[in-house]
Write a structure and sequence with these properties.
Number of domains: 1
Number of strands: 0
Helix content: 55-70%
CATH topology: Four Helix Bundle (Hemerythrin (Met), subunit A)
Bound molecules: flavin-adenine dinucleotide
Distance between the termini: 43 Å
Shape: globular
């Protein structure tokens, strides 16, 4: 079933890219409402993830390591950590979270600084 495995991996890569970009763009000083939005989003994301067995595993990870949403830095760090938990489960190498930096720059900085596109 190589086709299935390839499709699952491709969905995973696209999703992680999006997932980490959401964290990288989360406000540095989020309001209570923004924190609650991210927390809810992560739980719904886990429930609705299209690969059923992945969704099940990921929800178990969330129970063990609840989303951390107090700031952009904390959320991005938590996202990196939880992805590493999935990496470990799949026997993939651990990603160095100190290297997150500009890794998930979406080119959306103009939203913040009025920078030209
Ligand atoms: P990926 O893990 O897809 O990572 C993509 C890129 O992100 C890497 O190349 C690297 O540049 C970067 N990266 C790696 N680790 C981190 C990190 N910790 N923080 C930030 N960036 C990082 N597959 C299964 O077979 N079984 C499952 O149960 C399963 N559960 C999943 C649950 C979720 C929520 C998601 C999103 C995916 C899941 N997958 C699962 C897919 C799996 O995680 C991979 O996406 C897929 O196997 C492709 O792996 P990859 O080696 O290309 O790198």
């Amino acid at each position: 079933k190589l086709g299935n495995a390839t499709a699952k991996a491709e969905l995973g890569r696209a999703t992680w890219k999006y997932f980490h970009t959401v964290m990288a763009r989360f406000p540095e000083k989020p309001t209570e409402d923004q924190q609650e939005a991210l927390r809810s989003y992560i739980h719904l994301f886990a429930r609705l993830y299209p690969c059923g067995e992945c969704a099940e595993h990921f929800q178990q990870h969330l129970t063990k390591y609840p989303p951390q949403v107090s700031s952009r830095k904390v959320a991005a760090g938590w996202g990196c950590f939880i992805h590493n938990e999935v990496n470990a489960m799949l026997e993939k190498p651990e990603f160095d979270c100190s290297k997150l930096g500009a890794y998930y720059d979406c080119g959306c900085a103009e939203d913040e600084e009025g920078e030209d596109e």
